[in-house]
Structure formats: structure tokens, C-alpha cells
Automatic annotation (TrEMBL):
It comes from Chlorogloeopsis fritschii PCC 6912. Residues 91-225 form the DUF4142 domain. Residues 63-86 have a biased composition (Low complexity). InterPro entries: DUF4142, Ferritin-like. This is DUF4142 domain-containing protein.
Length: 229
């Protein structure tokens, strides 16, 4: 009887013990699960923040929005425009023709001072020498700045005029000289006007703007003298 009671007491004690342990386990398990969940969430948040920081600090690829990528072929221009390579074909052609025009006016007018006895013709020739020498100096300075060599000859067409003048004398010379001035200044004025219409070089445009009115004035004077007015 005592043994049976002892066994029952032991079973009751063990059952009581297991009940307490079960309750404790039941109570502690949700808390443990919540702690593990909080830990997992914390780690996940840390990883997300780290990823954002890494992306923010990483260099943006070229061409990405918000970045400025250098345009191909857009290297800074040299600080000077005094290079012959910066001149267009039109610029060079204008410089050549303007230089030859000045030389022609100077040479034919020097011949007029030698051959003509007419005061009006001589006065005109003197003015041509002075003003075309001035424009020649201006153009020479531009050419020097641009490393361009201007022609020293007057060209085939102008040479033909000079040869013709050398073969006449007296009144025939005066007439031929003034007629030649009309034709030469018409051609020169057209070249100046064409450059002012199409040319882009600011230095040459300033030169043409300054001297075109003088060329037009020379032409008008020559036309009046040829007409006998």
C-alpha cells in the first residue's frame, strides 16, 4: 500500500513538474519567436540601408541621367584664331583677290602719274595710290596675324590691263586708264559685297566693311570722269 502511494505520489510530482515546464515552454516560445523575427527584420533593414549607401556612393556610369559626359569631338578650341587653318576657302579667296586688286590699283596709278598730263587723272591716280596702299597695309596685317602669305603678283587678268596701258600714250592713255579703273573697281566692289554677304571671319568682315565704301567711291569717280562730267 505504501509502495502504491509512493508511486502515485511520484507520478503526481512528475506530472506537476511537466505541466510547469510545458507552460513555461508555451509562454517562452512566442517571445523567442518574436525575438528571432525582430532580429531578422533588423538584419534585413541593415542590409537594405547598406545596399542603398553603396549604390549612392558608387560612380554613375557615363551617359546616365544626371551625369554630364563629354561630347565626341568637342575639344576646347585653341585660345587663338591666328592660324591659317581657321580660314575658309572663301576667306582665302577674298584675301587673295583684295590683295591683287590693291596691287593693281597701285601699279596702274603709278604708271598714270608717269604718263598722264591731265590734272584730274593725276589727282585720281594719286588718291588711288594712297587709299589702296592703306587698305593693302590693313590686309597685310590680317594676313600676318593669320600666318597667311598674300600674293605678290597681280594675276593674269590684271597683268593684261597693265600691259595694255603701257602700250598707249597721251589722251589714249588717260581714256584707257580711267576705263580700266571703272572695270577694276566694279569687279573689286562685287568681291567685297560678296564677302560681306557670305563671309564669316569677323576680322575680314570688318576690313571689307571699312573699305567697300571707298571702292564704291572710287568707282563712282571713275565713271563720272569717263562720262566727261
Amino acid at each position: 500500500m505504501n509502495i502504491v502511494c509512493d508511486v502515485r505520489a511520484i507520478k503526481k510530482l512528475v506530472g506537476s513538474f511537466m505541466g510547469v515546464a510545458g507552460v513555461s515552454a508555451f509562454i517562452s516560445f512566442p517571445a523567442l519567436a518574436q525575438a528571432n523575427l525582430n532580429s531578422a527584420n533588423s538584419n534585413s533593414s541593415s542590409q537594405f540601408i547598406l545596399a542603398q549607401s553603396t549604390q549612392r556612393n558608387a560612380p554613375a556610369p557615363v551617359g546616365s541621367p544626371g551625369t554630364i559626359s563629354p561630347s565626341p569631338g568637342t575639344t576646347p578650341a585653341p585660345g587663338t584664331t591666328n592660324s591659317g587653318t581657321s580660314l575658309s576657302a572663301l576667306d582665302r579667296e577674298f584675301m587673295t583677290r583684295a590683295a591683287q586688286s590693291d596691287l593693281t590699283e597701285i601699279q596702274t596709278s603709278q604708271l598714270a602719274l608717269q604718263r598722264s598730263k591731265n590734272k584730274a587723272v593725276r589727282d585720281y591716280a594719286q588718291r588711288m595710290i594712297q587709299e589702296h596702299t592703306n587698305s593693302s597695309r590693313q590686309l597685310t596685317q590680317i594676313a600676318k596675324n593669320r600666318n597667311v602669305t598674300l600674293p605678290k603678283d597681280i594675276g593674269p587678268e590684271n597683268k593684261a590691263l597693265l600691259t595694255k596701258l603701257r602700250n598707249v600714250t597721251g589722251n589714249n592713255f588717260d581714256r584707257a586708264y580711267m576705263q580700266g579703273q571703272v572695270q577694276a573697281h566694279k569687279k573689286t566692289l562685287a568681291e567685297y559685297q560678296n564677302y560681306l554677304k557670305k563671309g564669316q571671319n569677323q576680322e575680314l568682315r570688318a576690313f571689307a566693311s571699312k573699305n567697300a565704301p571707298l571702292v564704291a567711291d572710287h568707282l563712282e569717280m571713275a565713271q563720272k570722269m569717263v562720262a566727261g562730267r
